[in-house]
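Appendix B, Record 12. Input sequence as logged:
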Amino acid sequence: MTILLIIVGLVLLAVGGDVLVRGAVGVSTRLGVSPLLAGLTIVGFGTSTPELVTSLFAAFDGAPGIAVGNIVGSNIANILLILGVSALILPLAIDPAAFRRDGLALAVATLACLAVVLLGFLSRPVGFALLALLVGYIVWAYRSERRHPDAESVMHEHVAADVTSPGMSLIAALGLAAVGIIGTIIGARLLVDGAIEIARDFGVTETVIGLTVVAVGTSLPELVACVIAALRRHADVALGNIIGSNIYNVLGILGVTAIAHPIEIPPEIAAFDIWVLLGTTALLGLFLRTGWTLKRWEGGVFLVLYAGYVGYLTI
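Logged structural output:
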């Protein structure tokens, strides 16, 4: 029964997250929001909604291992699993100019996550600081791309275009967004309940469940978006989705979770998993700097590393 609960929760999260993003971008398009702003904000927030709702439920349920493990594990899965799969489908080339600012923001967000984890407590002041960094990034990105349109602005516009349904009415878009929100909330509730139960039944820590099952489950919308982008040969969108999602996960999701319900950071995450995230992010930057392309063999390396990481956690 517990496994079924988790499976249903995962399906609802995957479908709900994808539907929410499409509905939200549809609403923004009908209201005249620019594709640039939609790609920067709405898609980023939308694909991170499963992480947000799941971490909030876990925090209020007294399961910090799931709440924090979900974010750290999702960012690791985004790079090693999702970019690994995407690169196997299509080598992911990126314009160096399109990576400079967002790559810097990703590095800052990852280092901020490291600092928060090493502090050992996710407090409200920390949450407000993380959200301030996110707002600063969005304003900086939007203003710079409005003034000097470049490869970065094209990439963010492609992100929005890939999830837009032409001809959708405002009512239909609002309905789609509402269905996505409901599906995401129900899916997150089922997933958290199932994760807590399976941790108790099998004697596995909630942190391990948060870093693996929950993290992969909440990353399913990113997986869907990146696979579609790779199949459409939009390499910039696949990379942009992951870089943006990892920035939003740390600065937005951890920030909101801290403000809503301050929690302790599980010591095992500080001892091991945060360093895996740091190394994974650094490896992504290294791979991209060598030819500005994430090659198929590099995607294969990512998948092998992720299998090793999950195997280490479970054993």
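The first strand starts at residue 92 and ends at 93.
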